[in-house]
Design a protein that fits this description.
Blueprint (H helix, E strand, L loop, with lengths): L2 E8 L3 H19 L3 E5 L4 H7 L5 H9 L2 E6 L14 H11 L4 E7 L12 H4 L3 E7 L11 E4 L5 E4 L6 H16 L4 E6 L5 H13 L7 E6 H10 L6 E4 L1 H15 L6 E5 L5 E5 L16 H13 L4 H16 L2 E2 L9 E2 L2 H11 L3
Parallel strand pairs: 1-2, 1-3, 3-12, 5-10, 8-9, 8-10, 13-14
Antiparallel strand pairs: 4-5, 4-11, 6-7, 11-12
Helix pairs in contact: 1-10, 1-12, 6-7, 8-9, 10-11, 11-12
The chain binds 3-isopropylmalic acid and magnesium ion.
Amino acid sequence: MTRTILILPGDGIGPEIVAEAAKVLECLRQEQGLDVTLEYGRLGGSAVDELGAPYPEPTRQQAQRADAILLGAVGGPKWDALERPLRPESGLLAMRGELGLFANLRPVQHYPSLSAASALKPELVAGLDLLIVRELNGDVYFGQPRGIRTLANGEREGFNTMAYRESEVERIAHVAFKAARQRHRKLCSVDKANALETSELWREVVTRVAQDYPDVALSHLYVDNAAMQLIRAPKQFDVIVTGNLFGDILSDCAAMLTGSIGLLPSASLAANGKGLYEPIHGSAPDLAGQGVANPLAAILSAALLLRHTLNTPDQAERIERAVGRVLDKGLRTMDIMAPGMIPVGTQAMGDAVAAALED
Ligand code: IPM
Ligand code: MG
């Protein structure tokens, strides 16, 4: 059965990096018989410009129909002054919410040939392989009430609501425990239970769910300590499970362990198996249009798509091996450049990965 992949290039560097991921998928379609059709749509600022909304109706329908979605990135200074519902990021959050994409998987893997690119000493990151499981449909991102109000004294106040229901914590905890079972059976739940009731309940629920997984070692860390531990000794972690806001912050932090945020893919999964796949980085407006952005996070997101929605792990691994080979050959985009390496732009990097697929 032919599967439909909806490609949403988005804004900034989004179209450039997604074109390379699409190139790799197209290559697998032609040479390996991957049974997919690629369809294109608009999300974010480009959708605002062309269709008047960041998650317009035609995109909504495409997204409902598609088996999987591959997204570049959204946002940029051009749209920052718009009212919040019209901002590109609101379109992305609406899509994550409406499609029920609650489980965000952010694997953080260290490539041996990139030791020099990490912000940490090589021995701290060599062999690093961790998975951040970030809850994506709750927390301050979606909690009500929210807004900016004017107080009696005329001063304005911004407010958001941090909230998690037991069922929301349970379902993400199950995803994380199951993921840990496929790995090294260690799960660290990150919260701020020393200060926040939301976290107090989070910890209680995760501890309860742990009874179903006696073979997985569960630990808990407060988020401030977790941030420190990620920098101090990141290899102590196997799987980290955390809420939407803490996960957003910790995953950017973890990205720098690998050398560049331009390397980290993500999968956002719904209970029905639908998935949205996107790099964890933003639209990098300052780099847009120059052909210098790193397409590897987008390409590796396509690999996650093959693994999690299309259930073709062999093809996913084929892409991941190709990325490793290209890095071993010394090809480097600007963000991971090191002395003696071969500088390449976005397209050349994509071409190299596509060429390394059949090796
Ligand atoms: C991410 C991004 C988004 C988020 C933004 C663009 C709304 O930072 O996917 O990590 O905060 O979730
Ligand atoms: Mg982020």
